[in-house]
Amino acid sequence: MRRLSKVSLGILGLLAILSTKSAAFAAGPEADFKTAYAAAEAAEKQAGVLRNQWLPTETALADARKAAEKSDFDRAVAAAKEAEALAKASIFQANSEKEAWKNLEIR
Amino acid sequence: MATRVGRTGRRLSVRFLLISLASLVVTLLQAPAGADSVDPAAEARAFRDYFLHKFPNVKPDDFVNGPYALNEDMRRQWEEKEQFPPYEFSLENGKELFARPFANGKHYADCFADQGIAIRQNYPQFDAASGKVVTLELALNQCREANGEKAISYTGEDMAALTAYMAYTSRGMPFDIKIPNDPRAIEAYENGKRYFYTRRGQLNFSCATCHVQNPGEHLRAEVLAPALGILNAMPIYRSEWGGMGTTSRRFISCNSQVRGVPLPPQSDEYRDLEYYLSYVSNGLPISGPGSRP
Q1: Where are the alpha helices (DSSP H) in B132-267?
Q2: For an interface test with A, which of B189, B195, B197 has the most A Cβ atoms less than 10 Å from its Cβ?
Q3: Each residue of A39-49: pLDDT tens digit?
Q4: pLDDT attached to residue B240
Q5: Residue B164, in any domain of the structure
Q6: What is the CATH number for B281?
Q7: N or C: which end of chain B has fewer CB within 10 A?
Q8: What mean pLDDT do residues B32-48 have?
Q9: What domain count does chain B have?
Q10: What range does the domain containing B185 cover?
Q11: Is residue B64 part of a domain?
């Protein structure tokens, strides 16, 4: 009897540890995704103001959303970070082209 | 003594400042419209000369035939295809659509000068009332809406058919785009020029990358057309599309090809781009509707 209660306690303890760990695991990556996605979306919005969004940025944002819907947050975070990098590149392009376009002009 | 020197120094400084200001004012007054003043006519000449120099064996009017002016093999195939041109059905459809009355009994013809016949070469126009460029596609939809009809898609078959018919009635007539003496018109021209030369999309291409720097070269199976006269053939039948395409569709597809998110059809940027590209092709004949691989 005593032995059985020890086993039960052990199982309960293990379950408690597992549930705590899995809860922390679930909250962490999802929060990471939300942060990464918000940053990517903000950068893409800025690219939109500059009228210079890129198609691969949109694709990466869509991939991030799809992965998040499937709770594949590692993939979702990676896609969101890729989208942010692409959006920032398009912003850089738009800003540098404000003057650089003149180099191509036929005179 | 020190005070007298100080006063004299101050007087000299003030005098120097006044002289500097006066000379600045004189300089500003004497300066031409500004170092950055725009001369579209001179720019159009330079644009044309660039292509004539780059392709000395191509006759000026032949630039409106795009890649066929630059590639003998493609030209032969095109001339054979022109016996039964792939845009023929669209042209017939456009003629029918143009003649079909609106619900109020009026027609497209009622919205345009000369009943809309042989006027394609005058579009785009700068509209002083709105302060914006009006393309032929936009004018057609403005006509529809003014007569209680819904606008049609700028990238659809009907718009392509209507503009094909109108272009056909203008075949051989030289582009005659006007830039009135209105700073907003100059600004629209400038905006169009800037859009044309600005690199965009993940591939970092501008319109000029393909159509100024590399016309005649292959991009995969495609031979790139020169920018000079590129809109004279619009709308076009493209085998790649399997159908007719409007100028709006062409701009959108160009942006997509360089992996940029296209702008909405007939957005200010596209209208200004069409204004610029048409203006620099002034004098070259309308050849639309055209066909391209």
Answers
A1: 136-146, 157-168, 183-197, 207-211, 247-257
A2: B197
A3: 999 999 999 99
A4: 85
A5: yes
A6: 1.10.760.10
A7: N
A8: 80
A9: 1
A10: 40-292
A11: yes
